[in-house]
């Protein structure tokens, strides 16, 4: 089938890079977002998120006329749904955004269209998308439905969208076939074929695997602290074994994928996903453990100096060198400390402002703080030299430089 027009629902961390990439490949792309400000920024050829090379792609796509953003869908040959899939307070998946996006395209879907779900979703969500359109009066027997989960790394999205292997699973064999051909038009990696439910489970499996391995590293870090062992040295030594590759611990696990997706399996498994559930609990607990370590350090300082400590929280994003705060353990830790009436200097060099508190320049924070807590290993922090009199707590992979005292 000939594909000319593509409608991308959701212009966030996946939708906008995908839309701009496709537009630069010659497709006519209509990007849809519910936030008018986001639409206006993109139509001006600018971006509202931090991602290397994305600004160049968007500017080129908009200037060529191949990318137009709007708050409403249009008729197209392919519809790509790339909206958030958070969970509710009890860790039950929330697919409302997918359902609402699907309903919104119902008036525009026609025979022969491909409707693709890229949002990471619980098993069965692609079927739900088809049912939703059917309930809206669409003849779904003449529409192709498929799931193609995104599997890119923030900071490398524009490269990995093209070069990573992709998994495509349709609700029918024909849907799989036509969707695979579409992805082959812009993906240099291998496009792997399966069914929709397996494709959905594959993405959840990938992120659960990573979550379990990070949990092992995080548990090691807490045990090492208990035993008086340097966890960084421990892991470096253990990894010299030819069949051992322990990951680096952090202050928890964040991001929209690894911190969320395993709960989709846990919810569906109804008590049978024991290892996956335990790993999630370990990684969530690590953030609480970090909060307690910082609180204890602040209390010791107050008892000694007879004043409250200023604590610099270095980094708020969920990983180094990005601006993404989704499910960020570092952001959670900073908020928890503030709730405990600790004087926090919140540092995040990748964002200019945050609604709930002031963002402090990292150099000023290091100068003013009594306790410096490294939560995220941003590149800016590697150049910092810290006065030897200040207490430093490190919860990410960092080599801290100490100023040599002037005698």
CATH class of the largest domain, named Alpha Beta
Helix content: 40-55%
Neighbour order of strands in the largest sheet: 3-2-1-4-5-6-7-8
Average predicted local confidence, pLDDT: 95
Shape: globular
**CATH superfamily membership of the largest domain, which one?**
NAD(P)-binding Rossmann-like Domain
- Listing every helix as H and every strand as E from the N terminus to the C terminus, the arrangement reads EHEHHEEHEHEHEHEHHHHEHEHEEEE
Supply database-style keywords:
Rossmann fold; 4-stranded parallel β-sheet; globular; 14 strands; alpha/beta; 407 residues; 2 domains; 8-stranded mixed β-sheet
Description:
- By secondary structure, the chain is of the alpha/beta class.
- The chain is 41% helix and 14% strand.
- It contains 13 helices and 14 strands.
- It has helices spanning 15-24, 36-43, 54-64, 96-105, 125-135, 157-163, 173-184, 196-227, 231-238, 261-269, 274-305, 329-339, 362-368; strands at 5-9, 28-32, 67-70, 78-81, 114-117, 144-147, 166-170, 191-195, 310-314, 343-347, 371-374, 385-386, 391-394, 401-402.
- The chain has an 8-stranded mixed beta sheet with strand order 3-2-1-4-5-6-7-8, with helices on both faces. A 4-stranded parallel beta sheet has the order 10-9-11-13, sandwiched between helices.
- Strand 7, helix 7 (173-184) and strand 8 (191-195) form a beta-alpha-beta unit.
- Helix 1 (15-24) crosses helix 3 (54-64), helix 8 (196-227) packs parallel to helix 11 (274-305) and helix 10 packs across helix 11.
- It is globular, with a radius of gyration of 23 Å.
- The termini are far apart.
């Amino acid at each position: 089938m000939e594909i000319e027009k593509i409608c991308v629902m959701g212009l966030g961390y996946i939708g906008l890079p995908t839309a701009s990439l496709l537009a630069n490949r010659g497709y006519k792309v209509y990007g849809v977002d519910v936030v008018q400000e986001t639409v206006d920024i993109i139509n001006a050829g600018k971006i509202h998120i931090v991602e290397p090379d994305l600004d160049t792609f968007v500017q080129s796509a908009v200037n060529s006329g191949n990318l137009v953003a709007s708050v409403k869908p249009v008729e197209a040959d392919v519809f790509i749904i790339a909206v958030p899939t958070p969970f509710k307070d009890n860790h039950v998946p929330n697919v409302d955004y997918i359902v609402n996006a699907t309903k919104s395209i119902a008036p525009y879907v026609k025979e022969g269209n491909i409707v693709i779900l890229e949002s990471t979703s619980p098993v069965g969500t692609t079927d739900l998308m088809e049912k939703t359109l059917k309930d809206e009066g669409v003849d779904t027997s003449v529409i192709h439905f498929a799931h193609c989960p995104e599997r890119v790394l923030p900071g490398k999205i524009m490269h990995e969208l093209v070069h990573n292997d992709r998994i495509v699973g349709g609700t029918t064999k024909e849907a799989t076939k036509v969707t695979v051909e579409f992805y082959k038009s812009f993906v240099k990696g291998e496009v792997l074929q399966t069914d929709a439910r397996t494709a959905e489970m594959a993405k959840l499996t990938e992120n659960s695997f990573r979550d379990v391995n990070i949990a092992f590293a995080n548990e090691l870090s807490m045990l090492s602290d208990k035993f008086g062992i340097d966890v960084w040295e421990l892991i470096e030594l253990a990894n010299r074994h030819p069949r051992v590759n322990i990951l680096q611990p952090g202050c928890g696990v964040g991001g929209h994928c690894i911190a969320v997706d395993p709960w989709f399996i846990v919810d569906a498994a109804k008590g049978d996903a024991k290892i996956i559930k335990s790993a999630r609990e370990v990684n969530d607990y690590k953030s609480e453990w970090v909060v307690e370590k910082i609180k204890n350090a602040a209390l010791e300082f107050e008892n000694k100096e007879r004043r409250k400590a200023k604590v610099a929280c270095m980094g708020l994003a969920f990983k180094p060198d990005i601006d993404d705060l989704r499910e960020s353990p570092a952001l959670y830790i900073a908020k928890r400390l503030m709730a405990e009436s600790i004087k926090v200097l919140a540092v995040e060099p990748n964002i200019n402002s945050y609604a709930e508190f002031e963002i402090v320049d990292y150099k000023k924070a290091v100068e003013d703080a009594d306790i410096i807590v490294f939560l995220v290993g941003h590149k800016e922090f590697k150049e910092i030299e810290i006065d030897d009199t200040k207490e430093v707590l490190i919860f990410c992979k960092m080599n801290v430089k100490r100023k040599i005292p002037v005698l």
